[in-house]
Amino acid sequence: MVKAVVVLNSSEGVSGTVSFTQEGDGPTTVTGNLSGLKPGLHGFHVHALGDTTNGCMSTGPHFNPNGKEHGAPEDEVRHAGDLGNITAGEDGTASFTIVDKQIPLSGPHSIIGRAVVVHGDPDDLGKGGHELSKSTGNAGGRIACGKYYWPSGLSKLGCALYLIMACTAFPAFTC
Length: 175
Fold this sequence. Notes:
Blueprint lengths: L1 E8 L5 E8 L5 E8 L4 E8 L5 E4 L25 E7 L5 E7 L14 E5 L22 E6 L8 H14 L6
Antiparallel strand pairs: 1-2, 2-3, 3-7, 4-6, 4-8, 8-9
EC number: 1.15.1.1
Catalytic activity: 2 superoxide + 2 H(+) = H2O2 + O2
Enzyme class: oxidoreductase
């Protein structure tokens, strides 16, 4: 089993943790607990870069290794990082579980070294007809983000090799 954790923080008061686990080549289970959100739906995505040096804007676009249009988590055509929406209750908290096959924690399309971003508005899942629907889901501003911690079970050498690969493949990655 491989595990990763993201700690989300923002200047807007949103905070929490999101855990990712994957058994072998099976789907990845995402479990999160966030607070400080406005009540309602919020777009929730894996973004391509783990760079948060300029806040959430430096995380790049949605993780999209196959070059597809934006869509819903259940759509065949979608960015790998399109995880849909999370729902915050009246108290501003969101607790959620997502199971997804397109966000592995190892292999050539691993999400380790990338970022999770929570958006201020609902993701229209590519179906809203807005000019941004097919690229971002028109999910609004990036209100919280965090970078994946290294997965459990990797040796120091494994982490060092992974960092070298990530820095080579993604020059904007913070090395």
